[in-house]
Amino acid sequence: MAYDTSPAFAAAQDAADPLAHFRQEFHLPAGPSGQPAAYFCGNSLGLLPKTARAAAEREFKAWEERAVEGHFTGDSPWMTYHETLNEATARVVGARPDEVVVMNTLTVNLHLLLVTFYRPTATRYKVLMEAGAFPSDQYALESQARLHGLDPEQVIVEIAPRAGEHTLRTEDIEAKIAELGDSLATVLFGGINYYTGQVFDMAAITRAGHAVGATVGFDLAHAAGNVLLHLHDWDVDFACWCNYKYLNSGPGGSSGIFVHERFADRPDLVRLAGWWGHDQAERFKMKKGFRPMPGAAGWQLSNGQIITLAIYGASVALFDQAGGMSALRAKSEQLTGYLEFLIHSLGLPKTKLEIITPQNPAERGCQLSLLVHERGRELFDFLAAQGVMADWREPNVIRLSPVPLYNSFEDVRRAGAAISQFYNE
Question: Measured between alpha carbons, how far apart are the two ends of the chain, in Å?
Answer without folding.
Answer: 30
